[in-house]
Design brief:
The protein is mainly alpha-helical. It is built from 20 helices and five strands. Strands 3-2-1-4-5 form a five-stranded parallel beta sheet, with helices on both faces. The longest helix has 29 residues. The chain is globular and about 80 Å long. The C terminus is likely disordered.
Length: 523
């Protein structure tokens, strides 16, 4: 029996049925084959890990159930994307291929090129639709923020009312991490995947947790609850950026209609969060516009600045394991290993120490962190790693003092004591600098390592090196070109297209644009 042509909806990092324009549009045109391709070669890359696949797998299981309620469950196939698509097209008439645009790592960029060539060879249209504020083939940044605002104000796409069943179309077993050659990596407190977990986080943040967002986001202890923790859900697309942006603006409008200092402070915290949603896409746009940023320093004068040395492996291993001899940094790295998450200040501090005090090449430290973050988003990660390591040429150099950060963010040592139990007997006043304690000889070099570098001299050496390449007309000229292509435009970005939920006139204040020293992408 001749089948009707199917519209393949290729789920990638958009694991939901709500606000899924490719799914909604394909369903209006005919029979949908909802497809997820497990690509072993992708999961063999150096920037992925078991914790990321486990989170993805949980999201896929819930997506499968949601699609099943519409009438057609998710079809899972394992293998290279082109091979999978060709096998489907060999047995089913295909009317078209639908997906969201993706700003992924270099491997996915090359894979998408191969899929484009395959679709053309088959005479098929591959319709890719935007799901974030990132714009393809962008020439310059003027008006980018206003375009983001317009897009996020557009109506959320409703899921199809139903999907015709494809009958006995085979779906392969969803592999586990070991099937993909991914091994347990020390994750002890995984974050729950799936849309329902994401919705619970969003609701709790907008109604309760965001009250302390601005003052607690940098705390290694309080930040875990005060930040939204939505970043892995945005990275995998269980929630869309549009859904989160509109829910945030709706909650701000409600709070603006209430009296008192409490609602005003809560609304101010949510405005800070709304600003960071803009910055989420702002950084992704950098990688979209310059894919080589994942592999090569943005400013040419910084290429070869950290050529690597025979000590790199030892220093990288100590830093990654939280064995540098600096308690607050070590606690942060161990916390990340156990939970898959770290607030932005601690992420920036980790990159700073690796890049400046240890003088490690940013790709080495960046790959380790990419694997550790459950919320790894290449478009944010690589521009941020370059920014924090001083290779963009347009950002202020910030070298974090890891001892000072300990005193500022963990003055009582609670965080350090939890994650560096070797220091349990060190008095509070010395826990951030145990080498100053009179009993240090019983701990340092025995149960806890000595400092891997001298903080003061390594900082001074790093400053001399990094500022040495930033002087001169040639550096400034290249930096000006980079700023023109990638720099932010400090224009107002109020949300538009929203229905008012309050009788009060909406505030004309715009979301503040953080300065270079204030960027904090704490989700």
């Amino acid at each position: 029996m001749q089948r009707d042509p199917v519209h393949i909806v290729w789920f990638k990092r958009d694991l939901r049925i709500e606000d899924h324009a490719p799914l909604a549009m394909a369903a209006r045109r005919g029979t949908v084959l909802p497809l997820y391709i497990v690509e072993p070669d992708l999961w063999a890359q150096a920037d992925v890990s078991a914790r990321q696949w486990d989170f993805t797998r949980a999201c896929l299981c819930e997506l499968d159930l949601a699609l099943g309620r519409l009438g057609q469950r998710l079809i899972v196939r394992v293998g290279p994307a082109v091979d999978v698509l060709e096998r489907i097209a060999a047995v089913l008439p295909v009317a078209g291929l639908w997906s969201h645009e993706e700003t992924g790592n270099g491997w996915t960029f090359q894979r998408d090129r191969a899929v484009t060539a395959w679709a053309r060879s088959r005479g098929l249209d591959w319709v890719e639709l935007r799901q974030t504020g990132v714009q393809r083939r962008l020439k310059q940044r003027e008006g980018w923020a206003r375009a983001w605002d317009r897009q996020m104000g557009e109506p959320v796409a409703a899921p199809p009312r139903g999907l015709p069943s494809l009958g006995a179309i085979d779906s392969e077993r969803l592999p586990d991490a070991r099937d993909l050659g991914l091994h347990p990596d020390g994750l002890l407190e995984p974050q729950a995947g799936g849309r329902h977990a994401g919705l619970d986080l969003l609701h709790g943040f907008l109604t309760t947790r965001a009250a302390t967002y601005r003052r607690a986001m940098s705390s290694p202890l309080a930040g875990a609850g005060a930040c939204s923790r939505l970043s892995p859900h945005l990275a995998l697309g269980t929630l869309s950026m549009k859904e989160v942006a509109q829910a945030t603006q709706g909650r701000i409008a409600e709070l603006d209609g209430e009296r008192g200092a409490g609602p005003r402070a809560f609304a101010a915290a949510l405005r800070s969060f709304a600003g960071r949603l803009h910055w989420h896409c702002h950084f992704m746009q950098k990688l979209e516009s310059e894919p080589a940023m994942e592999f090569r320093e943005l400013h040419p004068a910084t290429r070869g600045l950290r050529p690597g040395s025979t000590t790199d492996a030892h220093r990288l291993a100590a830093w990654a394991a939280g064995e540098t001899g600096f308690p607050f940094l070590d606690a942060s790295m161990r916390f990340l290993r156990a939970t898959g998450w770290l607030n932005f200040r601690m992420r920036a501090m980790a990159v700073s120490f690796a890049s400046y005090n240890l003088w490690l090449p940013w790709r080495l430290s960046g790959l380790h962190l990419a694997r550790q973050f459950t919320d790894y988003e290449p478009g944010i990660h690589w521009p941020q790693v370059q920014m924090q390591s001083g290779t963009t040429g347009i950002n202020t150099i910030r070298i974090y003092n890891v001892v000072k950060q300990g005193y500022d963010q963990d003055p009582s040592g609670v965080f350090v004591r939890r994650w560096v139990p070797e220091l349990a007997d060190v008095p509070d006043c010395f826990v951030q600098e145990p080498w100053r304690w009179e009993g240090a000889d019983g701990v340092i070099g025995k149960s806890y390592p000595a400092r891997i570098v001298d903080l003061k001299s390594s900082t001074a050496d790093a400053k001399e090196r990094i500022y040495g390449v930033r002087s001169g007309h040639a550096f400034a000229a290249a930096a000006s070109d980079i700023q023109e292509k990638h720099g932010s435009r400090k224009s107002g970005i109020p949300m538009t297209g929203q229905r008012r939920t309050s009788s009060r006139r909406p505030s004309r204040k715009t979301s503040p644009v953080p300065t270079k020293a204030q960027l904090k992408l704490d989700f």
